[in-house]
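Course exercise 7: structure representation. Students receive a sequence record and must write out the corresponding structure in token form. The form below is the worked example handed out in class, using Putative integral membrane transport protein (437 residues). Read each field label carefully; the graders check that inputs and outputs are placed in the correct fields and that the protein name is recorded exactly as given.

STUDENT ID: A-19
EXERCISE PROTEIN: Putative integral membrane transport protein
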Amino acid sequence: MLGGMAQTTARPDRTPGSPPVRTPRFHRAWSVAAVTFVTIIGAAAFASLPGLLIEPLHAEFDWSRGTIGFAVSVNLALYGLTAPFAAALMDRFGIRRVVAVALTVIAVGAALTTWMTAPWQLVLSWGVLVGLGSGSMALAFAATVTNRWFVARRGLVTGILTAAGASGQLIFLPLLSWLVEHHGWRPAAVTVSLAALAVVPFVWLLLRDHPADVRLAPYGGEYAEKPAPVTGAARRAVTVLFKAARTGPFWLLAGSFAICGASTNGLVRTHLVPAAHDHGMPVTTAAGLLAVIGVFDVVGTVASGWFTDRFEPRRLLAVYYALRGVSLLFLPMLLAPSVQPPMLFFIVFYGLDWVATVPPTLALCREQYGEDSAIVFGWVLASHQVGAAVVAFAGGVARDVFGTYDVVWYASGALCAAAALMALVINRRAPGPSLTR
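STUDENT ANSWER:
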């Protein structure tokens, strides 16, 4: 990767009187990608916390796991439903402004949880505010940066930026679990708030909306003037949705990605810690397992981006979903008071597959929907989070009703098999310029 950072495209023709277009040895696109990576890491701190809050909130307020799971499900649903509008808002107001505001909203929502005394306050602060803020700078943020700043190495960059969320999980999970275990859940919530705020200056000072802002061509591409701001962001997002919804590939991508969200964020990220605790495993140990998943998630996602540049994305998706489904079917037999070698194998295997689905899914969105692919991917991401929200709530209810999470593990494994089949039947299509033209 490092060897390819020099700009290799020819210098574009300049209009008379325009500033010179620079051709640097180190392309600014990589700096923008680095800032994006750090930003997503900071925002990912909040995603590490919900699974650690279920038991402490249940113990302190006597709220049911279903009630707490509902707040998490609102968060996950808004995370997804906000993404397509955020992509359109970035076209209208710029990446930097949207992301800075989103980080501030996350910080406010996380801080407000420290004063809550009723379930509706958890839903409002963690569910609504943090959900809206995080959705505004979710994977649609990474997709927008990749589409604007890169022509070459898009798959690799997508994998790296997707892995940023896992890196945030790796960094913050051990710290947050230690805080929850030794000092309670409130200091952990404050830590999340401060982490989001700390990233805002980096975004404002270092991030740029478009290569033309610094008189550059995108990495591996030709220079183009910055397009005029796109008005009617909400209308455009809805228009793109209605046009995409008339095509079969959209529903296959959205359906398979909903299952992806159900089997990762909704199930494992939210319920693995309390499920392991049910079997006598300490919370800090279970949180450590999630952190290890984050380690291998980074490896798996970057590798998936590299594979996506070289192999058919439909087949990659089918393999990823099939392997994930098999692993989930075995998980109930692996949970125990201590970590045994088979459990470690599951953690490594599952970590490699966690969000490896993102680069090939985004590649298929580009193939099918051209210039509107970032917004379409935002809607596909919305389905991912709706699937996650359903299982986050249903998992808590299943635990309350059956006293175990087993039925949810088995159901998710079966759904992954269906997702593998959906990926294989997506039709090939030459990229189109735009759905809205």
